[in-house]
Task: structure prediction
Amino acid sequence: MLNDVIKGIKDYFRAFALMNKLKLWKYVFFTGILSILFGGGLVLGMMGMIQAFAGTIKALYPFEAGKEYIVTIAQFISAAATIVLGLMIYKYIVFIVFVPFLGPMSEKVEEYLTGRKTGYPAWNLVRLAKDVWRGLLISLRLLYKELIWLVVLFILGFIPLISPFVPALAFLVDAFYGGYGNFDWALERYYNVRQRIEFIRYNKGLTLGNGIPFVLLLSIPVLGFFLAPALSVVAATISVVERIEGKG
Result:
């Protein structure tokens, strides 16, 4: 599994070189601008949430004994939860809104890697509607699964021996489902929904390896948001196609 994680991360470096070779920067530009606008608005909307949550916990806690500890833990957990929630909202919106750019870009990468045409029609309204619907369905499915994990981690965060590890675990959950969504751009051209789930199940390390740089990029102001959507999908396409073709 560790080797797969490393491969998923390394594919980002190959993706950057491939974007130059295939002249994909027009897709990067449009997704980058949209990403910065949406990401910036999301950050502004989250700014007051951390203290508000901690204040609510302080007001609801009925005892004086241990209140300082509970408030400290609440601030720590609320900060981690707000960041994770923001990233989660961002990446699922990406799967829907950026369809006109990320889908064709993934296809161009696949065609280069395999030497075969994907057989998909050029951009049109019918295809756009189909891809937006697919993006919505995958987003809802992944959002449901990820929320379950985050609720469990949120509850575990109030256990003193476990709470220090909650942010790292939440990061890994966020990264895994980010990689899952990125992989779907290429997987949907090969498999149906059930088969795509099976692919992810047998390639957890590769999926996580794609998601880790994706989430880390989003921690870099402006530049990270600009590059993250396009770069992560190109890297995911490389990983998926090579795994299916038996080359990686």
About this structure: Residues 2-242 form one domain.
